[in-house]
Structure formats: C-alpha cells, structure tokens
Specification:
This protein has 18 helices and 22 strands. It is an alpha/beta fold. The strands form five sheets. The chain has a five-stranded mixed sheet, with helices on one face. The protein has a five-stranded mixed sheet with strand order 8-9-10-11-12, sandwiched between helices. The chain has a five-stranded parallel sheet with strand order 15-16-17-18-19. Helix 9 links the parallel strand 15 and strand 16. InterPro entries: Amidohydro_3, Metal-dep_hydrolase_composite, Metal_Hydrolase, YtcJ-like.
Length: 534
C-alpha cells in the first residue's frame, strides 16, 4: 500500500494544477516538498540526476483531496460487512440479510445503508421479519444516516428503557446509541483492523491523502480511535473526539479537538434533527435537541482557552439557532478574537440563514459539509422535501456560507455517502437548489486546501502545488481540462488566461470523472494503480 519516497522525484509530461504556473507540465519534489514547477525540457536539465522520474503521459497532477468527515471503521465495515445501500426494496433488504447470515453463521451481522424512503413498501421491516431473516444471529443494521438502526431481538435487551426505544420499529436517540455500543463491542480487533485497512486503502485509491475521523463514545470508542490514529500506512488521519469534557481529554486521546460528531441534534432522515417547526410527514415531532446554548458555550470556552478546536454536529434549524446562541454566550467570556482564532468546526450545518452565516463567518467557523447529501436527498422530490415540505429545498446553502466568509471543507460522512471526491465537487457545483452551489474552483479548493485549513493548517500553501508546499498530490487520468465559465450566482473569478487560474476537469452532469492513478502524501506514495505503468 505504501513505499518509502525517494529523495528527489521529477514528474514530466503532464498538466500540473498550480497557482504558481498554470501552464506547468513538470514538477520536482525533494524530501517531500515541491521545489520547482515549469516545462519538461527545463526540468529534465535541472533534475537530470533525480532519484525517480515519473512519466505522466499527459496525466493531470493536482493537490490530493481531504475528506473532512469520515467514520473509518464503519465505512470499512460497509466494505467488509453487509452493504444495504443498493437495496431497492424491503424484500431485497431482508433477502440480503438472509444470504449474509447463511455465510456468517451466528456471528454479529453489521450492516448499513437501508433507506425506507426509496422502497416501494414505504416501511421498515418488523422485528418479526428481521428475526426470521436473522435466524437467531445478533443483527445491527444502521440506517443510511446512521441515526437509527434496525436490530434483531438478540440485541434488543441493550436498548430497553432508553429514550428512542421501539418494540417493533427502528431504534433512535439513546436507544440507538446503546445498541450501537453493544454491536461495536462484539467486533473483534482483527475485524476492526480489516475494516480500517479496507477504508483507508479505498480512500487512497480515490485520490484522498487525509481524512478527518469524527469519533466519539456513541460512534466508535477509544480503542477504535487509538488504533486508527496509530496507523501510518495510508492517508493521514486527523482525529476528532465528539465529547464534552476537560481539555486534557483531547490530549489523552491524541485528538486534534473535542469536535466532530458531538451531537447538538440528530438527522433529518431519522426525524431526529431539531426543527423550529414540526416535520411535515410527522407533525407530532420536531426532532431532538441534545445540547442547549449554555452547554455549547461552556464547551466552546473550555476548548478556546485550551487552544484546541471545539465542534458540533448540527443539522436542523432549531439546533443551528442553539449553536448561534452558544457562540454568542462564549464570545462574552473569551472574546471574539480568541473565539475566531480557535477555528471551531460545525459538521453538516444544513439549515442556516444568511444572518446566521454572517455571524458564523465573524467567529471564524469552519463548516464541514457534504455535497452528496444534496445530490442524494435534495431537490423538490427528494427525502428532504418529503420530511420538511418546502423547507426541504433550502438546505445546504454552500454559496451563502462562502459569501459570509465561513471556511468550507468538503467531505463524505462515509459511510453515509460514498467516498468519491470528484463526484462531491461536482455535487457542490450543481446543487439541486438554484443559487446554492459553488463555482468549480471554490468547490475544488474546499475539498483540498479547505480540508487542511479545517484541521488548523493555515500556512497558505498546504493543499496547493507550488514551491515550498508539501508534495501531497494525486495523478489523474483526465484527458480534458477546462476553465469554467463564471456563474453570477456564486463567487466570480476571471477566466482570462492572464489571471493564471488553473483549469479543472469537466464537471457538468454526466461528465466522465477522472480516475486516480497515484496518490502521494508528502512525497510518499500511498496508492499506485498497478495496471498503469508510469
């Protein structure tokens, strides 16, 4: 999966995405740092003694992607366990479970990805149906948003008496958290290692050089987190731990901050995102609020004073309002400058007004967002609209956040959506709601440089290819490059060649997206497509 990097590498015969030289065809790397960009003939002369020469054959070299929100073990278990994301009906879901049990026996079945809103039956399996398919095996099947789960009777005792318990339907809220912890405890260290390897290998294959793991006591566990952070065989893992506590908790765990999925609320698909007004398809509920403004403010204060990032999972408009109030309270204690300097994070941030975005921008907030959410569930006929009515077309306003100065970092929330960075950039550009998308340049920057900035690396060059920058890049099979036409709805930029704006692959709907040939992290190759010999 990896190899030690040579001291000097020369790449020639390609197209280099660089603000320093948008016409560069060659790049030199020494000791993991980009030292030169320019034309092939000059490079071959200057670096004739390079330890390695990579013939690009027209390949496109660009900064590697950063996935700013993942759950590595869960995403890996989707690859090694029971994948329900392709099930088109309740019957298909039960058939897939039945087939899996036949091969795995009575071992725990970990599955993920069912979405009843896409099924013709428009319902989830009953527990009796699930037990019949499980044949006595303990079964944990998380919904696509991972905020509720179906479980067999063999696991039900872990959830009884908890908020969100259902005798016959999906479990959510604390009942889901309890049963998930029990299911995680049944996964062996070997299974966990296999899942983490599968995920990290796949991320590297997709041109990703760094992932932000959003862990926590209700998501994975301290052993899982420690094992993941100890890995050195793939993309760099930046760890966040979603729990309130003293600042030394982050240091003990090796976490970049007490952030990530520290839940202020749940998810729209499971109807646990906290709303100001009830769900359109369930008027008896407005979701669940897990943290109030004073608790949010206290967490911000502790982290700000310790110089570490705080962060929260926040989706619904009521939860966003609570977060805004929490920041306002914290500002009175620590001051705006300190609050903004800490670069606190908000994960998802799906329902946000213009005024709220402007305040978040003043507080230096990072919005870690997932454009494939909109691609999967946005638009007038999507799940968001089914759950929320006309409010469902107003989610994920990326252009509004960018215009307010909020730092954007793109991610997948894997296993909730697939790890596919070019599709993610494409979805950010072609938002299902007119005017909410980003320019191609802004979206690409948010998925590269923005990911490093979200993790506190803000030196101005990390996440780019220019002299002095870390040699973290991917080589792509992308025969065509284009300079995007500016869009009046989003941030403008000049398309005049003299503006030195690097071109990108076509991202129009239906475009054939680039294929990753090699991924490099600070000069070290972490993925090399074997059938492509460079």
């Amino acid at each position: 999966m990896t190899n030690a990097h040579p001291r000097t590498t020369l790449l020639t015969g390609g197209k280099i995405h660089s603000p320093a030289d948008p016409h560069a065809t060659a790049m030199a790397v020494e000791d993991g740092i980009v030292v030169w960009l320019g034309q092939d003939s000059v490079g071959r002369t200057m670096y004739s003694g390079a330890d390695e020469t990579v013939e690009l054959d027209g390949g496109f070299v660009a900064p590697a992607f950063v996935d700013a929100h993942v759950h590595a073990t869960s995403a890996g278990l989707l690859r090694t366990g029971l994948d329900l994301t392709g099930c088109a009906s309740l019957t298909e879901c039960l058939d897939a479970l039945r087939a899996h049990v036949r091969t795995s026996g009575n071992a725990l079945v970990w599955g993920h990805g069912w979405d009843e809103t896409t099924w013709p039956e428009r319902r989830t399996p009953t527990r009796a149906e699930l037990d019949a398919a499980a044949q006595g095996a303990p079964v944990y099947l998380s919904r696509i948003d991972v905020h509720s789960a179906l479980v067999s009777s063999a696991l039900l005792q872990h959830a009884r008496g908890a908020d969100g318990f259902s005798e016959d339907g999906p479990l959510n809220k604390d009942a889901h958290h309890r049963v998930r912890r029990a299911a995680l405890a049944a996964i062996t260290p070997a299974q966990r290692a296999e899942a983490q390897t599968a995920f990290l290998l796949h991320a590297a294959e997709m041109g990703i050089a760094s992932v932000h793991e959003c862990a926590g006591p209700d998501i994975s566990g301290t052993d899982d987190f420690a094992d993941l952070l100890a890995r050195t065989d793939g993309p760099e893992v930046v760890g966040y731990w979603g729990e309130r506590g003293s600042a030394d908790l982050a240091a003990r765990l090796g976490a970049r901050g007490l952030a990530g999925d520290l839940f202020v609320d749940g998810a729209i698909g499971s109807r646990t995102a906290a709303l100001c007004h009830p769900y359109a398809d369930a008027p008896d509920t407005s979701g669940t609020l897990y943290l109030d403004a004073p608790a949010i403010a206290e967490h911000l204060r502790i982290c700000t004073e310790a110089g570490i990032q705080a962060g929260f999972h926040v989706i619904g408009d009521s939860a966003v309002a609570e977060v805004i109030d929490g920041f306002a309270i914290a500002e009175k204690t620590v001051g705006r400058e300190a609050l903004a300097g800490a670069r606190h994070r908000l994960e998802h941030l799906e329902m946000v007004t213009t005024e709220q975005a402007e305040r978040l921008g003043q507080w230096g907030v990072v919005a870690s967002v997932q454009p494939l959410f909109d691609a999967a569930w946005g638009g007038p006929d999507g799940m968001y609209t089914e759950r929320l009515g006309e409010r469902g077309t107003m989610l994920n306003p990326f252009s509004r956040l960018a215009a307010a100065g909020v730092i954007l970092a793109l991610g997948s929330d894997a296993p909730v959506t697939r790890v596919d960075p070019w599709a993610t950039v494409q979805a950010a550009v072609h938002h299902r709601t007119d005017g909410y998308g980003l320019s191609a340049r802004a979206a690409f920057t948010a998925h590269t440089k923005g990911g490093w900035r979200a993790a506190g690396v803000d030196d101005g060059i990390t996440g780019t290819l220019q002299p002095g920058a870390p040699a973290t890049y991917a080589i792509w099979d992308a025969p065509e490059l284009v300079t995007a036409t500016p869009d009046s709805r989003v941030q403008r930029w000049s398309t005049d060649p003299r503006s030195r704006v690097p071109a990108l692959p076509p991202l129009h709907p239906g475009a054939e997206l680039p294929v990753c040939l090699r991924t490099v992290l600070r000069g070290r190759t972490i993925h090399h497509r074997e059938e492509h010999h460079q």
